[in-house]
Design brief:
Layout: H1 2-12, H2 14-18, E1 50-55, E2 60-65, E3 68-74, E4 77-78, E5 82-85, E6 88-91, E7 97-100, E8 103-106, E9 109-111, H3 114-119, E10 133-135, E11 141-146, E12 149-152, E13 163-165, E14 169-170, H4 173-182, E15 188-192
Parallel strand pairs: 1-15, 4-13, 12-14
Antiparallel strand pairs: 1-2, 2-3, 5-6, 7-15, 8-11, 9-10, 11-12
Length: 195
């Protein structure tokens, strides 16, 4: 009877039991008491509501609903490269931490910043130039996380799964559709470096 009960529990909750990890001496907030790690869900992320997480170390995006994995996929994240032109310097870094969806954008138009022209070896046009507006580069949807960081699609599907962006998170079309329609303004987004 005990063996059948244990098998039933493992079958019903494989995600929970398959990924339990012991505490290590350097983990300050770790507790051995029923502390289970769920792939893609940092310990400080809520276990209720819709939560989007991005594991930059693995280039993976996750969508959770009430602590349960709904979907995961590869993602593209910041290259960590630096571009310097005169006194200007840009670091293409995906920020880590707890963010929220500030705006949902259909058919986003990319407003090319100065660094995009410099990187391409092109002259930088005036701020109001129509050359700065590019349609289709960011996919069909975008979630604005603030400070110029978006979760969006891409016109370069081969970039997915790599560290090649200028800080934004790129998703494949099917994952972007799911995430975009699941998220609301205010949805929690956690960007972190997994093990």
């Amino acid at each position: 009877m005990k063996k059948a009960l244990l098998i039933a529990i493992l079958v019903l909750t494989p995600q929970l039991f398959a990924q339990s990890k012991p505490c290590r001496w350097y983990q300050f907030r770790c507790s051995e008491q029923n502390e289970f790690v769920i792939e893609g869900l940092p310990p400080d992320a809520p276990r209720s509501g819709t939560v989007i997480t991005i594991d930059v170390a693995r280039n993976r995006a996750y969508l959770f609903k009430d602590g349960q994995l709904v979907r995961k996929s590869k993602a593209a994240t910041g290259s960590e490269k630096t571009l310097i032109k005169g006194d200007d310097e840009w670091v293409f870094h995906t920020p880590r931490g707890h963010m929220k969806v500030l705006h949902k954008i259909d058919d986003p138009v990319w407003r090319k910043p100065d660094w995009a022209f410099i990187e391409a070896g092109e002259p930088v046009p005036p701020p109001d130039s129509p050359k700065r507006l590019v349609r289709g580069k960011l996919g069909k949807h975008a979630l604005d996380l603030g400070e110029g960081i978006l979760i969006h699609g891409t016109d370069d599907p081969d970039s997915i799964g790599q560290r090649v962006s200028h800080g934004c998170i790129r998703l494949p079309d099917s994952m972007l559709e799911t995430v975009y329609h699941s998220a609301k303004v205010g949805t929690d987004v956690f960007i972190f470096d997994g093990e």
